[in-house]
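Comment thread on ticket #2218

A.B. wrote:
> Attaching the input chain for the structure job we discussed in standup.
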Amino acid sequence: MQLGPLGIRKMVGLHYYVRDLARSRTFYLERLGFAEIGRSSAQLEAAGKQRSLVFQAADVVVTCSTPVGHGGRAARYLAKHPDGIGTLAFEVEDIAHTFAELEKRGGTPISDIQRIEDDHGKLETFSITTPFGDTTFRFIQYHGSTGVFPGMERYAAPVFGSHGDNDVGFTEIDHITSNFQTMQPALLWLEHVFGCEPLWEVSFHTRDVAKYEVREGSGLRSKVMWEPHSGVKFANNEPYRPAFKASQINVFNEEHRGDGVQHAALSVRDILSAVEKLKGRGVEFLPTPHTYYESLPERLKEIGVGEIPEDIPQLEKLQILVDGSSKGQYLLQIFLKESAGLYADAAAGPFFYEIIERKGDRGFGAGNFRALFESIERDQMQKGSA
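C.D. wrote:
> Ran it. Output below, let me know if you need it in another format.
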């Protein structure tokens, strides 16, 4: 079904509900090199019963909120889940048009359009429910306002950590990946309500099921949908038989206690430099075995990429993955450990970040999915959850 555009310009950012706001502040300022640009107003904290800090690096904006008392959105989310993504925010061209279109297509608004004015201008916004578990979508039209959400107080000058302003070189949110026990409802919603189109898909098992008929290991199906007018991309995963319950997608669902956002991919200008800096600050990444890099030159030939300018021993040292689809068109990516592993705290949850640098390829690393999947599986087995 061909739908007209909703008028989305871009994904503005993530709203992350956390139990330890001070720990999150240290992570974004001192590990990732974000700037702290604002916070929730006293009025919002009293009304919403949550305290928020806003972090930014280029076009990547992350709002972290923690409960203040009972009854607020953060408290309700965290009563059901470990720390996780509660809202995805999108900037739109015409809020009235977006609202009308979504309602016409069967979207479910949580409220009417809110209009907020501050000293910097006006902000118009509304949110809708989604099939992404307890993650809502917020739509915002700015009229000069610099707030990321209603009630945000922007600092006169950003607060930086010891590394300064975005020395890692983040640029934007490349895509969002969500896990479902069954993803078809989300795919239909993305197509018929959000106006997305299919972009890419893959399915596999960590054992060669078709050939050996084993009942060990686990697999997944993944389908990527994109909103073609804005380029916003959603990757969606579900478990793949056999061993459905052992699948790391199902393990995520059990640990998160429901469907939800598994990871967000953040683009960087230079992934080798970025990862080197992050590792130097103690940021931990999922490991990749030596055999991956041993076979990498041959695999790149097989998929048509051929030789790449990056030094493979350096990629192995940093544990960066490579994939692509045609000569000169490839991508480089790496995945942080999930938050529970980074903080050694199960309540921090299974959400994690991906770091990605695209060298012309629009795909999602089909050849890397197995390496990532097996790496997460090993990590889950080490901590006893798989």
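A.B. wrote:
> Thanks. Noting for the ticket: The chain has 13 helices and 17 strands.
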